[in-house]
Amino acid sequence: MDETAIAVLGAGPHGLAAAAHLRRAGEEVRIFGDPMSFWRTMPAGMLLRSSWTATCIAEYDGPLALEPYLAESGRDFTRPVPLAEFIDYGLWVQSKVAPDVDRRWVTRAEANGDGFVLTLADETQLRVRKLVVAGGIADFVNRPEVLKSLPAHLASHTADHDDLSKFRGKEVLVVGGGQSALESAALIHESGGAVEVAARADHINWLHGGKYQRRLGRLAPLFYAPTDVGPLGLSRLVAAPGLFTSLPRSVQDKLAHRAIRPAGAAWLVSRLTDISIGTGVTVTSAKEVGDRVQVELSDGSARTVDHLLFGTGYKVDIKRYPFLDPALAQRIATVNGYPVLKRGMETSIPGLHILGAPAARSFGPIMRFVSGGWYGAESVTRALRGSQRRTAPSAGRLEPTGEGA
């Protein structure tokens, strides 16, 4: 059986960040995955909500940041970064840090002695001593029960579509008050669909679009971190996971919710002016009526539409990763589906590390975003190297200031 020291499962932003940092450290690493595959499933025409720095993979001012990519590729785009451009940028990063990425699907990862065995789609097996999972959130789609009872042509989740122009000439009710729901509504409307939004919250939260950063001028970096997660002041706190996770759990949960509550980008407001947005309502029932769907809302009103589209996000539960051997997954200590992680993003199983959104409970809300890959990759690299912390941070890296759980 072939063997390697470290395997990274996943070739999205977090997996590529891990590959970059581990290989810079001289580690023997094999990377598995279809580069940027999750992002390619998103609706065409979408724009990234994150700031320029927070859209950078692995580092925000090093050779893998957006500026070097633009210089080398000859591209020219500004914020908000178009989804298509971000995907191309991610593929460029992959060409730099993992040109040898193995695109074979990992069908099973199981414990074996003091390491792990990976089984690939062609039945090839590989023994690895350390396993880094950067599996993303595609397996965590949050589908309400009412959605599960309807056929796919009448009801779906925003995660099911890479092209919303299919709803041209259709009446669509979009459920949700976050970026995914609101931007999907805008794209459907711009494609010629008749769309309405129903949100559970009593109001829509709108981001400020950098207004306060511009007002603060040169003082802005004191209050806003390059990670671009959270409002003024809180942005700096959540960008330091060691500090953030030293707070009482009840405080962490409250601040994390504030940092990542459902919200729409400022540039969406003008695109939604002709769309009816109802707040403080939920879907209480939905049933198939001929070739349409009849929807009843909590305010007592009803709609009959061509399609019911849920923008209800994702709910982390690592046991839903299809490649994790059930016996292995069962041994991982979790809380509400999130793995309990310690130094180096390591689970309760020695040698098994998990990056990305599943690390949010242990290291804070930045782990849900592309910019969280800076910390995660640096942290796991330090752990696998077994080295001591440097006394001074390197330029462009979010330096760990402590490890939480």
Please give a quick description of this structure.
With 405 residues, the protein is of the alpha/beta class. 27% of the residues lie in helices and 20% in strands.
Describe the structure.
This protein has 405 residues and is of the alpha/beta class. It folds into two domains: 210 residues, FAD/NAD(P)-binding domain; 110 residues, FAD/NAD(P)-binding domain (3-Layer(bba) Sandwich), CATH 3.50.50. The chain is built from 14 helices and 16 strands. Helix 1 runs parallel beside helix 4 and helix 1 packs parallel to helix 14. The chain is globular, with a radius of gyration of 22 Å.
Number of strands: 16
Termini separation comes to 35 Å
Mean pLDDT equals: 93
Report the helical percentage: 25-40%
Computed CA radius of gyration, to the nearest angstrom? 22 Å
CATH architecture of the largest domain: 3-Layer(bba) Sandwich
Series of H and E elements: EHEHHHEEEHEEHEHHHHHEEEEEHEEEHH
Q: Indicate the proportion of strand residues.
A: 15-25%
- Give the overall silhouette: globular
Poorly predicted runs of 5 or more residues: 387-405
> How many domains would you count in the coordinates?
2
How is the main sheet built?
Answer: 6 strands, mixed
The CATH topology assignment of the largest domain is FAD/NAD(P)-binding domain
Could you state the CATH homologous superfamily of the largest domain?
FAD/NAD(P)-binding domain
